[in-house]
Amino acid sequence: MELSKEYSLEELAKFHGHLGPNIVLGYMMGKYACENLTNDPFSLKATVYCPKKTPESCIVDGVQLGSGCTLGKGNIEIIEDSNIHCEFRTESASLTLTPIAMPPLPERDDDYELTIERYAEDLYMMDPASLFAITRSE
Q1: Its domain of life (predicted)?
Q2: Would you state the torsion angle of the CA atoms of residues 48, 51, 53, 54, taken in this order, to the nearest 10 degrees?
Q3: In sequence order, which residues have a C-beta less than 8 Å from that of residue 15 and are 6 or more positions away?
Q4: Whose CA is closest to 38, among 95, 76, 77, 78?
Q5: What's the pLDDT tens digit per position in 46-91?
Q6: Three-state secondary structure of the chain
Q7: Which residue in 19, 48, 110, 128 has the fewest CB atoms around it within 10 Å?
Q8: Residue 1: predicted pLDDT
Q9: Mode of pairing for the β-strands spanning 45-50 and 76-80
Q10: Percent of all residues in the chain with a pLDDT value above 70, rounded to a whole number
């Protein structure tokens, strides 16, 4: 079954509870994997390497939405690692995406939540090739 769904920033925030940069990064990683490996959420497997604490672990929610790999289906695995990256696999190929060249987080201010939302919106509009080191294996 091939499924393709674009999620808006509002939908990401609704699923996750708020809009932040890590859910956006995870979503973009998962979406890239679907676009470049397969849109079949049953043929794709994901391994997310990240700290098991917020805000970094929020990347997992984004990967689930972007890739269709879910905890319920059991085709996503989370491995604790301080070096954030994601591996996506099908039977014939794999992709590894590692965040690079991230714009610096904004300074804390009186309306930091809004500032972080705007930062996340900016990430959502960026080209994945400028956000991630991408390695493909056949």
Answers
A1: Archaea
A2: -70
A3: 7, 23, 61, 65
A4: 95
A5: 999 999 998 889 999 999 999 999 999 999 999 999 999 999 999 9
A6: CCCCCCCCHHHHHHHHCCCCHHHHHHHHHHHHHHHHCCCCCCCCEEEEEECCCCCHHHHHHHHHHHHCCCCCCCCEEEEECCCCEEEEECCCCEEEEEECCCCCCCCCCCCHHHHHHHHHHHHHHCCHHHHEEEEEEC
A7: 110
A8: 54
A9: parallel
A10: 92
Q: At 107, list the tokens.
A: 């300074």
> What is the set of domains in the chain, with CATH numbers?
9-137 (3.30.1330.130)
Q: What DSSP state is assigned to residue 2? A: -
Q: Which two tokens stand for residue 106?
A: 């904004």
> What tokens appear for 12 in the block?
């990401």
Quick one: tokens of 87? 């591996």
**Amino acid at the residue 46:** A
